[in-house]
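Subject: Re: docking follow-up (zinc ion)

Dear J.,

Thanks for your patience while I sorted out the input files. As discussed at Tuesday's group meeting, I've set up the holo structure prediction with zinc ion included as the bound ligand rather than trying to dock it afterwards. The sequence and the ligand SMILES I used are pasted below, so you can double-check that they match what you have on your end before we go further.
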Amino acid sequence: MSKASLLVVGTGLSLTMAMAVIEPQQTTRYSAQPLIDRIAPPAETTMALTTDSAADVVAGAGPNLPLETLAQPAPAPKKANPWIEQTVRTGDNLSVIFKRAGFQTKDVYSIVSQAEEGKSLERIFPGQTLAFQATDSGELHAVKHIRSALETVTYTRSDEGFTSAIATQAPTAKMAWASGTITTSLFMAGQEAGLSQNTIMELANIFGGVIDFVLDPRKGDTIHLIYEDLYLNGEKYKDGAILAASFTNQGETFNAYRYTDANGDVGYYNEDGVSMRKAFLMAPVDFTRISSNFNMRRLHPIYKTTRPHRGTDYAAPRGTPVYAAGDGRVTKAGYSHSNGNYVFIQHGEQYVTKYLHLHKRKVKQGQRVSQSQVIGTVGSTGAATGPHLHYEFLVNGVHRNPRTIHKQLPKAKSLPEEELAQFQLAIQSASSQLAALRTDNRLAMNESDSPGRVQTQLAQ
Ligand SMILES: [Zn+2]
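The structure tokens for the complex came back this morning:
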């Protein structure tokens, strides 16, 4: 049995990093509800930004990407008749759907041939919605093709035939933050802090070059995140990007900030502008599949064998995805009595990584692979006592511990000198927010009866 101590601080704030400052006195701490409920912004905590301002961002875009222009919806008929909706079914074509709605095949031809966007009406998919509006005399007046929650095309009859208009809707990004303290695993801490699986995966991707999320986390490590949730029509639409994150592992703090560089490329950088993306992942395995039970075995990560052990073993359930640690080329992918299913990857001139006892191989000899690409799954083929990934790292043909030779590995990309001032300015606000979260968390941890402290019993 162990106790998870978690602090969740959440509130909503329209997106404007420069204006957003955490006021500890005003911050409400919550405990039981899901985080989404917690961050629905009360009017008084929302910055004075309306939907036509910079508060709108396009899905997946960072705070400093250009905004998308909204197209005007098609004009309604003088006397608006109701829209009748039809859902596209498997095997449907336009004629069938139009007939179902009480209109003609010739209407389909008119729209497709006359409207500027007419051809795109032919690209319908099951589950999409078409809505029809008739004139008073029962003729087709307009058709709406709802392509997605974000995009609708309206075709309207006019004196010159059908015209089309595309209306796009951009989700509103709301900033949220969360803090967690690790007791068993990062994944558990993230879940307890109300983060979605996607966001936890994203967090792991960001820190995957500096932290081994299977072997490194220790009880008492902390995570702090500032991230976006995307809302559409007042409802959570999907997870947005992580804007900044900090991970304190065994007393050492790593910070990462999302930044769009001068070329328009989005990446995560530490406070000095050094990219978080390294040449090699610290742990080439999907840690989110590794339960706390498996994590407990990290105390003894290396199986005792009679021969000297020259790799790292990650105990994980059969089927857990195994990633290429870095970009490279598969030099061998095969089976042997001792290795079981194995994959070897050459990275540049000097480095080779080896992955043994795989359940399945997902790459072929000679194939190019990129970092984090799934190359196989964890298994127990060959001389293995149970499902685990045996991982080896070789430098110039010599086995090395990837965890202790970091200084010899290729340097990560840094932002160019001339961009650093701009970068420092861009991360200033997020940086002070992370600092405030850390302080707030420490204070809460010291007051054991703090109302914001959530204690959860985790079964081992
Ligand atoms: Zn091993």
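A couple of observations from a first look. Residues 303, 309, 311, 313, 390 surround zinc ion (CB under 6 Å). DSSP finds eight helices and 22 strands in the chain.

Let me know if you'd like me to rerun anything.

Best regards,
T.
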